[in-house]
Amino acid sequence: MNRSGNLAAFFEPRGIAVFGSMMEGWFFGGAVVVRELQALGYRGGVYPVHPSAESVYGLKVYPDIARAPNPVDLAVIATSYRAVPGILQACGDKGITAAVVIADGFAETGPDGVRRQEDMVALARRNGIRIVGPNTLGVYRPHAGISTIPYEKGYHLPPRGGVSIITQTGMYGPQAVALNEYRFGIGTVIDLGNMCDIDEVDSLDYLGRDPETEVIGLYIEHTRRPRELLETARTISRDKPILCLKGGRSGEAARAMASHTGSIAGQDGLYDALFRQAGIIRVDEYEDLLLGAKALLSQPLPRGNRLGIISLTGAMGIQCIDAAADNGLVLGELGEGSVERLLALSPTLAGHPVDLGPASAANGADLFSYYIKSYDVLMEDDNIDCIYLNTYISSYLSPDVYKDVFRHMADHLRKPVVSWSYGPSSESVRRLGALTEHYGIPFYPTTRKAIEALGYLVTYARLKKAGEPT
């Protein structure tokens, strides 16, 4: 089987067969998949298959796949593992070329499960079927109207966007992570499960050529094809950033992985070297993958690593400098013209970081003017490559008081900018963050996370400038 073959049947199928329980209103099963496909506006044929059900959500249920109309490219199998071999054989007879096997009970369960999985793969290969899974939630691709997630979620799936995610666990798919809170849309999510066939290399290759995908997030616990991963990622990372969270750094974690996906990890230091050579940006936790993707998706790349800081307190400026040192950034030295322009605004604006606290305390009415003018100074200073912005909101102020500030910043943005805000009301801070991002400036839960995001931008800019990852 050609492992690098076209995966269009998973992401652009002309018809989808759904196997599993067809009980309406139930929290798990084929009926949930059918309803999600309808809700997302999937335009191909949807063919529920069950031996005794007659209809589900207004669609006819077929007693076997042979009776369903053609064409059908993708099968979603949300049944017991015992039923999977027979279903796959029927799919092969039908000419179906792709299957999402949601069922568990395979390699993750021990030797018997390993044998079941090997037998399933052999059967699929004899019939020309590619598999995502088993032990997976499958794929989510909103612009194509596709979701194979079989669980009742209780929240809205994220909209269409430019971030695509490859994960070896459903935990980091859209059913478990409230991606809407990150305020960016999703291109594709692929939960690889046990990776009996389709793996991270196949998925990267597809997303690298996918026009919907601008940034790729990757969660892996191991790879069976390190050379192919290096070569594929090296090619893709020249045009699209790849952020990766690697599970199993410690020996204890590596042993635990075998019990949930059947993974066997290698030495973590080898993965570090592989990622560096491939141009993959490694992150420490899943939140970093998403927060980094937000900056890479929305901000221009910096020319260098010199940081400009606008804060409301001296302590916040110090925290920024510490975080910068940990993330490959340095505090930029303002040009003479910039220093003169700041001093003309207020004699308290005599240094860098630009601390607006004393100036606003002396003349609070000018705070928003200070924001705009100091931003312009840093944006126009050739010694500054990226900017951190600190704002404050109280429970007595509406976030709308910043509208003119953020509108001006958006209109004059030529370098990457990130923001963090504080205040006594978490709801006010949340609303201010939403307003900040409405104007194209990514907002972060802490100062350190904001600086880390700038670090990812600096790292990726360096990789692109080098022409080839080192």
What order do the helices and strands come in, and which of them pair?
Blueprint: H1 8-11, E1 15-20, H2 30-40, E2 45-49, E3 55-56, E4 59-60, E5 74-78, H3 84-94, E6 98-101, H4 111-126, E7 130-132, E8 138-141, E9 146-147, E10 160-167, E11 186-191, H5 200-208, E12 215-220, H6 226-236, E13 242-246, H7 251-261, H8 268-278, E14 281-283, H9 286-298, E15 306-311, H10 314-326, E16 330-331, H11 336-345, E17 354-355, H12 356-362, H13 367-380, E18 386-392, H14 403-411, E19 417-422, H15 426-438, H16 447-466
Parallel strand pairs: 1-2, 1-5, 5-6, 6-7, 10-11, 10-12, 12-13, 13-14, 15-16, 15-17, 15-18, 18-19
Antiparallel strand pairs: 3-4, 8-9, 8-11
Helix pairs in contact: 3-4, 5-6, 6-8, 9-16, 10-16, 11-13, 13-14
How would you describe this structure in keywords?
single chain; 18% strand; 470 residues; 5-stranded parallel beta sheet; 19 strands; alpha/beta; 39% helix; 7-stranded mixed beta sheet
Short description:
The protein has 470 residues and is of the alpha/beta class. The protein is built from 16 helices and 19 strands.
Give a verbal description of the structure.
It is a single chain. The chain is of the alpha/beta class. 39% of the residues lie in helices and 18% in strands. The strands form 4 sheets. It has a 7-stranded mixed sheet, with helices on both faces. A 5-stranded parallel sheet has the order 2-1-5-6-7, sandwiched between helices. Strands 15, 16, 17, 18 and 19 form a 5-stranded parallel sheet that branches. β5, α3 (84-94) and β6 (98-101) form a beta-alpha-beta unit. The two termini are 32 Å apart.
